[in-house]
């Protein structure tokens, strides 16, 4: 275990240990990916907040497990206006599976992100997706190699960072889609100011996501004001009526505009 890993929460170290033991696919994949930046632009043009809604059965930071069919959840999220979906494929800590992602991607026409803890190239070949998550902190010096390996298969790599230094590493690795995770890896606590600190250093031509901790429309608007092109939202959508919850975030800016217009005419 290196010094960086020692600073991580026990749950994160457990996730990493499990990820190291998982194999990859038997054959190299070649993916015809649906463009995430184009989907974000289309949502903006239609006046929707670009939301990546996450199909997440469980996690180390949530209680219980959602037993609903992932395909049913995905369809409801898309009906609610989701620009893209994130599907967990990590089995031990998040209750995900490659089969769930495969079924979801076949059922919807929006880009689908594979949310997992991919540590070596063979693990990219487990299942087709439009985007694949690569976590800068976990990959370290291998980040650039993994970004290239993902692109060689047709994936759009979403590189996750937690700091300005990791943002620079992501940009040096050629990342064009970057997620800033507001949940730290040491205490698993959420701080929305993480995105606000990191986002100003991101160039305009990068598609920038705010990840974790967005639980209300006000927080969605806060992240958008700070420069988020899109929002990755999990628990706040999964908890309850996923279609209505998705729509609430997708319409968050329009709702505020409507409220403001109402106030000024009274």
TrEMBL record:
Residues 26-248 form the Indole-3-glycerol phosphate synthase domain. It catalyses: 1-(2-carboxyphenylamino)-1-deoxy-D-ribulose 5-phosphate + H(+) = (1S,2R)-1-C-(indol-3-yl)glycerol 3-phosphate + CO2 + H2O. Pathway: Amino-acid biosynthesis; L-tryptophan biosynthesis; L-tryptophan from chorismate: step 4/5. InterPro entries: Aldolase_TIM, Indglycph_syn_Halo_TrpC, Indole-3-glycerol_P_synth, Indole-3-glycerol_P_synth_dom, Indole-3-GlycerolPSynthase_CS, RibuloseP-bd_barrel. Keywords: Amino-acid biosynthesis, Aromatic amino acid biosynthesis, Decarboxylase, Lyase, Tryptophan biosynthesis. Its EC number is 4.1.1.48. One of its GO terms (biological process) is L-tryptophan biosynthetic process. It is an enzyme of class 4 (lyase). One of its GO terms (molecular function) is indole-3-glycerol-phosphate synthase activity. It comes from the Archaea. Belongs to the TrpC family. This is Indole-3-glycerol phosphate synthase.
């Amino acid at each position: 275990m290196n010094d960086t890993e020692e600073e991580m929460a026990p749950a994160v170290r457990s996730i990493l240990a499990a990820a190291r033991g998982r194999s990859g696919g038997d054959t190299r994949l070649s993916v015809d990916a649906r463009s995430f930046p184009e989907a974000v632009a289309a949502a903006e043009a239609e006046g929707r907040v670009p939301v990546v809604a996450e199909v997440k059965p469980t996690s180390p930071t949530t209680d219980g497990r959602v037993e609903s069919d992932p395909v049913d959840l995905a369809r409801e999220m898309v009906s609610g206006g989701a620009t893209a979906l994130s599907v967990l494929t990590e089995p031990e800590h998040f209750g995900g599976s490659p089969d769930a992602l495969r079924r979801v991607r076949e059922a919807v026409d929006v880009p689908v992100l594979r949310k997992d803890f991919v540590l070596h190239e063979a693990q990219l070949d487990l299942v087709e997706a439009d985007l694949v998550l690569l976590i800068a902190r976990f990959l370290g010096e291998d980040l650039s190699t993994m970004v290239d390996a993902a692109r060689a298969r047709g994936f759009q790599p979403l590189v996750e960072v937690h700091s300005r230094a990791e943002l620079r590493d992501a940009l040096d690795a050629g990342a064009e889609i970057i997620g800033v995770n507001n949940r730290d890896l040491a205490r698993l606590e959420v701080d929305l100011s993480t995105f606000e600190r990191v986002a100003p250093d991101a160039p305009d031509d990068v598609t920038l996501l705010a990840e974790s901790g967005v639980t209300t429309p006000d927080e969605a608007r806060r992240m958008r004001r700070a420069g988020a092109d899109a929002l990755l939202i999990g628990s706040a959508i999964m908890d309850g009526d996923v279609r209505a919850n998705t729509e609430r975030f997708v319409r968050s800016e329009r709702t505020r505009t409507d409220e403001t217009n109402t106030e000024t005419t009274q």
